[in-house]
Write a structure and sequence with these properties.
The structure holds two protein chains of two kinds. Chain A is an alpha+beta fold. Helix content of chain A is 29%, strand content 29%. Classes of the chains: A alpha+beta, B alpha+beta.
Amino acid sequence: MIELQTSRLTLRLPMLADWPAYRDFYASDAAKHIGGPLPAVRSWYYFAGDRGHWDLHGFGWFTLDDGRGAVGTCGLHIPPHHADVEIGWNVYGAGQGKGYATEAARAVLDWAPSVTDAQRIVSYIDRGNTASKRVAEKLGADFTGEMAAHDPDCEVWLHQRRAA
Amino acid sequence: MLAPTLQSQRLVLRPMRDDDFAAYEALMASPRAAYMGGPHDRRAAWGMFCSDVAGWAIFGHGALMLEHRETGETLGQVGLNAGPLFPETELGWFLYDGREGAGFATEAAVALRDWAFAQLPLDSLVSYTDAANAASRKVAERMGAIEDADAPRPDPEDVVYRHHRGGA
């Protein structure tokens, strides 16, 4: 069982108990930069799909757990419509503003070379998502000046390579 | 749990793999996907595909691909579906274009039904079929499932078949 630990968070595989928080996040306006708001019939496929990605690729999205339950998600994925492996992060309402996304993403970037030999790890960030861009900057990523091939509203941010 | 591999007379029912996605996506984009809430674009199909895989980890049951024992060809999928979108655990199936009519769906669905009743604490399973999907309804009927007019269903237009433990 893969699990990463940061100073305040446990990054663990998604489980069914995490679904209500995930569903509520995707149903809210806070999901507007990631294709939401979405009804549960749609977000369920993303939720379960996040778990299935692990079995297909050996990596995927973690649930961020602050010791009391799910406060967000962060992970690596490579859907067929993406050009590169992406690191993504979402922090739910109550956990926002605490630096959780940056803390979790650092751990995921450090772990990445052990599960993928991808030459590039990017983040696709909606041009209006200033909070997420700030996280990318804190992580040391740079905006490439390009927009994502799969979504003209998403900027491509390139992360610095970590040693394997 | 990890997805098992099951055998039937002509088929191997095996775990899904990344390279199954191309054919899965093509089916979900085609007019035939109308019986499965589609057609679905690539992003939606990928979510469904990964969700099918995840069933085993989340619920202890899920989907398997049908592979022909002799040719190795992947013919379709059979699955035990659950989650907040399903009132009950569902046994579902599909075949790829041109693979219908040879009894593969029935053979695979029987194998997974028998696995389910041997491994899971369920008294019955349901299959949700589109009223207009005559081929799929025939599979359920050939398996001995009985139409259940009172069962809750995700779509009011669905016809629900019930499979009972111990046959019929």
